[in-house]
User: Fold this.
Amino acid sequence: MFIYEKKLQYPVKIANCNPKLASFIISQYGGPDGELGASLRYLSQRYSMPYPELKGLLTDIGTSGSFWAV
Assistant:
């Protein structure tokens, strides 16, 4: 059993809007070269991996990457 607390490690206080920075951050997560794209590539490549140890490694990398992208 586990407890899921959606709590930030460090508190964030936003004083003003910065649309240019927000656009850059979104592109890093969801763009073609972003974290989500890389995570999905790792997860899709695991199906063609012949070695179970490496298949597990690609799964771990892909799921930890998608965790941070969400």
In short: The mean pLDDT is 79. Helices lie at 19-30, 35-45, 52-69.
